[in-house]
Design brief:
homodimer; alpha+beta
Chain lengths: 335, 335
Amino acid sequence: MRYPVGVVLERTAGALRAAGMPPEPAATVAEVMIDADLRGHHSHGVLLLPVYLERIRQGGIDPCAEPFWIREETPVSVLDANGAAGQVAARLAAERSAAIALQAGVGVVAVRHSNHVGMLAAYRAPFERTGVVGLILNLAGTSVAPPGGQRPTMGNNAVCLVVPRGEQEAFSVDFATGAVACGKIRQAALQGTAVPEGWLLDRDGAPSTDPVQLDEGGAVPVFGGHKGLALSLMIEILAGAIGGGVTSRGVNRQRLWPDRVMDCSQLFVGFLPSAFGIASMAPFLEELEAAVRDSYVSGPPALYFPEQYEAQARKEAERDGLRIEPEVAGVLGLC
Amino acid sequence: MRYPVGVVLERTAGALRAAGMPPEPAATVAEVMIDADLRGHHSHGVLLLPVYLERIRQGGIDPCAEPFWIREETPVSVLDANGAAGQVAARLAAERSAAIALQAGVGVVAVRHSNHVGMLAAYRAPFERTGVVGLILNLAGTSVAPPGGQRPTMGNNAVCLVVPRGEQEAFSVDFATGAVACGKIRQAALQGTAVPEGWLLDRDGAPSTDPVQLDEGGAVPVFGGHKGLALSLMIEILAGAIGGGVTSRGVNRQRLWPDRVMDCSQLFVGFLPSAFGIASMAPFLEELEAAVRDSYVSGPPALYFPEQYEAQARKEAERDGLRIEPEVAGVLGLC
């Protein structure tokens, strides 16, 4: 069933408020989730609400906690999320990294003791407002296996770059280092459909198309072989070790430990183009799109450049409403 | 034929001095090349010397040019390489980004109007000395095709993370976004051997195993499909657009235009762990190695973690000498 975006947003915030979260953080968490749905990434959307509500009930997310600054300096600050919803801390960190960069040319904010932050590109607003380019790295709990490995000993760690371009919505690239997002596998489990080959290994390390295996000790292979492993290690080091003092094995997976703070961590780095003598990023983004487009001898495929899928999904959602799974519609009081 | 490391190093610097380069930059360029050979990456090693010498003769590299600071501030500085050898500018940038980070917690140096810089991990020394973690991004000329594309419209852009760990040599990950390094294909061309499938497309976009096709309009496919494309775009934006005001299409490929400065660019970002409350990176690196090792049910393969291959190659080179191609041995006066 589809429901108008505004209704889903308000009902989601309402469900969080009913669970004891004050209005401002509830609105933030709801906005980040609905933004993912609007961009077509339902795995990071309101589908997560039941998980978050369960974690609030069991203590993994403290709905009233307020993040606090361990170090509030320029150009490096460190935020303790204090067990609050990850979205609340991440939004603060995005704002401060952009504000520092606006002043100093570069701004870095590390976030530790945090919870699930959802889709990284959802934190683009402060970068859009300031014209600062934002690099965001997230350390996740273990779900990914290295090339040829069987056990999930690394995170499905994510990296995102937000590139403002004036009045237009910022351009972003946003991806995780697993062959696929864990949420997409769980979405398949909810819908009772098999996943494509290459997405999943079962608990014995054998290839599997049964999405239920993921949360029964299964693993997602890392993308891109040894280069994907190298990128994932970079994120473990930058977002995890430096940013949070932890690696993926120190993160409490949110479904496995609903009563514990996840202790995941993030690194936000803002770069102010004008500090490098660059007035606008828009012409470079146009050049890059042309470069990719021109590589196809017989013309590009329908979707060839990041953000095209997201723009399409948003248009559809705004026109037809958001598609909500029955389980979630029930939680939202929509059926 | 194999020659002692010290002899190759001195002969390489000597060849550059004979071409008109002063002793200090000649030593820098030679050290960076030989470091790649020592680590087993001959594609970035002394094999490049004939290309560099030709570029000096034709004006693409100005052997006497001195890079100058466009902006020399904390925490962001911008260096104009001024058409000097890329290694000279890159070493300056590495030193300054580490020095700024030591003072401010983070340090950023952009390098523009530069030439080929070789293997990024070769710039680890200033990070090792200061304990600063270094992120290095390089924008290359066009040689890579996006997923499913035929024409080389993107760079084989590289990313490297240097992680100091006390007395031990720094740990590093260092890779480019093409399925393979262009230099490895050119090495095969020199040796007259075919390259594996998946490494190369010919000028018409058809898969090829003939390494000669690379410099006749061929392309290397990007690694890792759309996620590899996303990473490569991130480097185009950070090292290229922000760092140098250019994308890969604005870079003059070094063999194609031996009379022009390449105009490639780099971004060096240093992060001081203690600014984030982290005393040492060593325990995290041990944790990461254990995480990868533990993922293999029947024990890990011989090489499973970055730097293992490089350590092995170095041991071999120091024991047996460096293997030098006959063409290069001639240039070095070694045969």
